[in-house]
Amino acid sequence: MSDSFQDALSGLAAIVGDKQIIASGPDQEPYVVDWRGRYHGRAVAVVKPGSTAEVAAVVKFCAARQLAIVPQGG
Fold this sequence. Notes:
Blueprint: H1 3-16, E1 21-22, H2 29-32, E2 46-47, H3 52-64
Antiparallel strand pairs: 1-2
Helix pairs in contact: 1-3
C-alpha cells in the first residue's frame, strides 16, 4: 500500500472513524455490485459517513486531494 493511499485512508478515518472505512475484502461486495447483480465495480475503499456533516467533510477532503468518489445512498 502506497504512502499516499495510507495517508488518504488515515485522513478519512479521522473524519468518520476507522470502523466506517472498508479498505478491502468481501465486506466491500455489497457496495461494488449494482442492485441487480449485473455490474461489478472496484473500490479502493468504501467510506461510510454517519451524518451530513461527515459527508461534507469527506467530499471536501477528497476534492482537495483530487480523489474520485462515487456517492451511493439507500
